[in-house]
Amino acid sequence: MLNLLDSASHLASALRRRQFSARHLLAAVLDAIERLNPALNAVVHLDAASAWRAAAASDERIACGEAGPFEGLPITIKDCFEVAGMPATAGAPALRDYIPAEDAPVVARLRRAGANIIGKSNVPIFAGDFQTYNKIYGTTSNPWNTSYSPGGSSGGAAAAVAAGISALEIGSDMAGSIRWPAHCCGISGLMATRGLVPPDGHIPPVSDLHLGRNLRLLGIGPLARSAADLALALDVIGAPERAGSAQALPPVSENWPKGLRVALWLHEALAPVDASVEEAVRRAALLLQDAGACVSDTARPTFSFEEAFEVTATLIHALVGAGLPEKIRQHLALTGHEFLPGDLSHRALQARGLNLTPAGLDALLTRRQSLCGKWARFFKDTDVVLCPPAPVGPVSQDHGPDLHARLIHVNGEPRPYYDLMTWACLATSAGLPAAVAPVMLGPDGLPRGVQIIAATGMDRIAIACAHLFEALGACAGAPPAAASPAIKRHMPQARNFL
Predict the structure, then answer these.
(1) Residue 36, Cα to own-chain centre: how many angstroms?
(2) What whole-number distance in Å separates Cα of residue 466 and Cα of residue 249?
(3) Taking the alpha carbons of 54, 55, 56, 60 in that order, is the dihedral positive or negative?
């Protein structure tokens, strides 16, 4: 029997062994979308006709022994990436009718690997929120509890993967947009080493008009139901277009994980963590320790958490602000005089980012380069950092127009909504690879995960840690929305399910 909650690696292997056909798999996925998507609203565009043609072509390649790594796997694509012939709205009404003629490079790589690109998954407008909703397609819900958000900005992607209606997905991340949804939906995610996967064909940024340069903050990577899928996806999407254009990916040592040097990073005054998230991170650390790793809760780079957050958050606000409508950008920038230079509140950092002068931007980029050097020196004596993906577990749907007015609650105490990005900024500060692996369910019955940060180019070590957690039984399980994942083999007539 075909199980849509199997890993993409398992499904791909079963297709190559011809246990079922690509058309049978597509039929099962389309049936699941028809049943589950009305409640989730994860898939917002579907091209069933093209999907059927692609499935038939995959079956022919499989029969001829010419299958690619993802041959016949039905995959949705985050609606920030350009897919030829499909809308690429980034959740913005101004782009409602934009249909690109070419695939983004990462999408093209998936197609060359045999993936069947069946549609698009939902995002917040211009990927600018930690929840997933917009005026074009509406709200996406968490498959564990539809009163909660699946996170953002890759929320539609994470919900689709968790529910079994996409074999895997590709997300994008600056402030946690892969890691936070993976944490919320109980799946695995990887923000790859910056530059390893090309960000071309991603919206935003629409332009660098107000900055005059590309800040290169965006990280691209997979969302999947297993760590093995992250590795398989990285083999496909991380392949360099030309020699020297991407970092090599060293294998994990043979005696893994004995001797692995782990830094446990949990307590920061600027970023308090809910007890349920701390429990998940500590549980992950104990699993590594019991497997032979050396865990330290005192090892730290020679910079402060506050410095990494200030530099990264200011640059993120500058880049996001550059794509805002001029009137909104100017209105927010005018608040800059209200804040003192050392103010690390989210409003102050936003205003500072929107008011960056060329000299101020150069100074920030110099500080970021310094952070990269300090991280590199730290990783000479440490292999991975375990820390929270975010301060809390999944949050209830809240679409109040002022993000600064929204709140999250850490151990019952109110905290600013933008605190959701605090722990994500550690890896973003130097473009480091960062994986999220599910560990457990919290007292609310919703997933909790752990963030695994590794050195530049050491993506496979982060993935290997996620795989070990999985092998030792750390997981979230299947969400209630996908409680009946077993689909009988059948092949309904092709039809439009949305």
Answers:
(1) 22
(2) 16
(3) positive
How does pLDDT run across 167-200, given as a tens digit for each residue? 999 999 999 999 999 999 999 999 999 999 999 9
Confidence of residue 485 (pLDDT cuts 50, 70, 90): very low
Q: What is the mean pLDDT of the chain?
A: 91
Gap between the Cα atoms of 196 and 457, Å rounded: 8
The closest alpha carbon to 464, from 424, 438, 437, belongs to 437
Q: Which residues are catalytic?
A: 78, 153, 177
What stretches of 79-125 adopt beta strand conformation (E)? 116-121
Q: How far from chain centre, in Å, is Cα 263? A: 23
Of the candidate ranges 149-158, 242-251, 340-349, the one whose mean pLDDT is the lowest: 242-251
How confident is the model over 381-385, as a mean pLDDT?
98
Q: Which residue has the tokens 């019991």?
A: 290
For the chain, what percentages of helix, strand and coil (3-state, to nearest 5) are there?
40, 15, 45
User: CA gyration radius for the chain?
Assistant: 21
Query: Is the whole model's pTM more than 0.90, yes or no?
Result: yes
CATH number of 2-303+376-487: 3.90.1300.10
Alpha carbons 243 and 122: distance in angstroms, whole number: 34
**414 C-beta neighbours (distance < 10 Å), count:** 9
Q: Residue 66: its pLDDT value, please?
A: 97
Cα–Cα–Cα angle for 217, 433, 319, rounded to 5 degrees: 10
